[in-house]
Amino acid sequence: MVYIRAKKVKSDQYLYLVKSVWDSKKSTSKQEIIKYLGKASEVVKDDIPVDYRSDPKVLTVLASYNPKDIKKREDATKKSKQQLYKKLTEGNIQESLKNYEEFTKIFSSTDFFDKILKPTMYRIGEEWASGKISIATEHVASNIAQTLVRIIMDKVSGSGKKKKILICVPLGEEHHLGCDVLETYLSIKGFKIFNMGTSIPTESILSFIDNNNPDIVLVSITLEDNLLAGQRLVKKIKEHVNIPVLVGGYALQANKIPKFAGDIIQEGSLEELPKILRKNYS
């Protein structure tokens, strides 16, 4: 059974999507967290994983926390995604930036990346793969999206006093929007980021690690065709130096994922990543 659990911290409620799992050793059921959803007043239907998004019990509980505002927030999110898709595919950076600014008057920058930019770029990639849009349109949209992330990056600054993190891609991976999004968000959170979001030989990445001593390496893989190259890159890094290597990206949603020498981060919200880094790699 899947349901929403609330946890009160000070005066605010925070929601978790959980399920009951049978513990055969103790002959009882226990709760297992599927996903941290966020502050109750800000959670909308899109925050629920697709597999559980139509569950009537889940939706009823979700609506009960903010029945008047949730519809308005969902409509705003849907409208922003539609507008951003249109402006990116048209190559309009000014209107794309305006979309970000309008959305963040209500939501946070993290929400923009998670709820607007990420699903919009997934849609563009899927429509290119299915032939609904041309490769030229996909390139225009990707370039505008990267420019947008860079502009947002210029608007924020992190203290850089936390761990040093290298973000890189395997050889052959030409999609680096995910790297730019990670750089922006983790910089806001105060991490020192080295964004090597360009496909370069593994030897160059190893040399950079030797010279700059990052605490953690994040490997981003967007295309499923690059999973094996990512697997080789992670193996080389782990053989070369004893530091944590985390692997994530859209390609990790594939049905068959090779075994990595590092830790796989399944698809989730950006807000969860700093918690993962603090909890497991401090």
The CATH topology of the largest domain comes to Rossmann fold
| CATH architecture group name of the largest domain | 3-Layer(aba) Sandwich
Number of helices: 9
N to C succession of SSEs: EEEHHHHHEHEHEHEEH
Measured distance between first and last alpha carbons: 34 Å
- Kindly give the count of domains: 3
- What is the CA-atom radius of gyration, in angstroms? 20 Å
What is the overall pLDDT average? Answer: 84
Share in helix? 40-55%
Could you name the CATH class of the largest domain?
A: Alpha Beta
Number of strands: 8
- Enumerate the spans where pLDDT stays under 50 for 5 or more consecutive residues: none
**Strand-residue fraction?**
15-25%
Q: What can be said about the biggest beta sheet?
A: 5 strands, parallel
The computed structural class is: alpha/beta
Q: What strand order characterises the main sheet?
A: 5-4-6-7-8
CATH superfamily of the largest domain: Cobalamin-binding domain
